[in-house]
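Deliverable D5.2: sample structural annotation.
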Amino acid sequence: MSSKNPTPVIQAVFSVEELADYFRISRAGVWRLLQDGRLPKTKIGGRTLIRRIDADAFLASCVNAA
């Protein structure tokens, strides 16, 4: 049975490119946040991943700082 409105999948982690799309900034901008330590990252294999909870906390801290 197919559904017209499937439940959206909420990602637990983002790649750098996915996070850039989520934040609507460049990949270079994401890399700067990671290298400055303002956003935590993890490496699995050769991939750099950012937890969604960390990305959302970072966004919340930006709103609270403004």
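Annotation notes: Helices lie at 16-23, 27-35, 52-65. The domain at 13-65 is CATH 1.10.1660 (Multidrug-efflux Transporter Regulator; Chain: A; Domain 2).
The annotation will be released with the project's public dataset once the embargo ends.
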